[in-house]
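Pilot study result, target chain (217 residues):
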Amino acid sequence: MEVAEAQPTIKRRLRMELAGEVGPEDLATEIGKRLAAIETRRSRVHWRKYKEFVRDLSLQRAMITGKMAQQKPALALEFLWRFLDMAEGVLRLTKDEKGEVEAVFLGAVEDLGPIAVAAKGSTTALADRAFQALETDEDEIFVRLVEILLPALDAEGSPGCGCCWRPPSPGADGPNPRCAPLSRRSPTRKATWTASSPPSPPAKRCNPGRAPRSPAA
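Predicted structure:
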């Protein structure tokens, strides 16, 4: 207990672990308090506090993607988006020369994929949330977001899901224009596929039996 008193992150972890034993809602309350404190922070992170701050961020990510995701993945997905929403503000308050703060958020983006699959939520809502993140991604935290979310977006195999995304071809990258939910907005430059992306699974037709229209001359 003396160590916990001396190191705030250890004390927070103990409190969150105990809350997690009670249930995901109690854990959500504890995590929510800490996220709120970080969200409303206005002072810069002093270099002497940098390591402790990185540990704190890593703890929040670990509790969301670990115990909470195991107990209630839909709630964990909600909190993970909230955690990622802090990235821009946190990076502005941190002299992140080592890139450790950015690495925590990049890792959290990777966590979105399996948690979104486990949450089994609406693919349309997930696609809308992804576009919202991409449109405001000044720090390029979400560069790989589309690729990471493809398994979850393709979970239902229906229009508006991952089948609407296809690898690059001349004059046709991004969402299939015939799939309404994902084509309501034009994707940003970060939502397009790149040559460095791993091979995509074979594209599915959103309207089986109908041949795609030929582009106008």
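One observation from the pilot: Residues 121-161+174-194 form one domain. A full batch analysis is planned for the follow-on phase.
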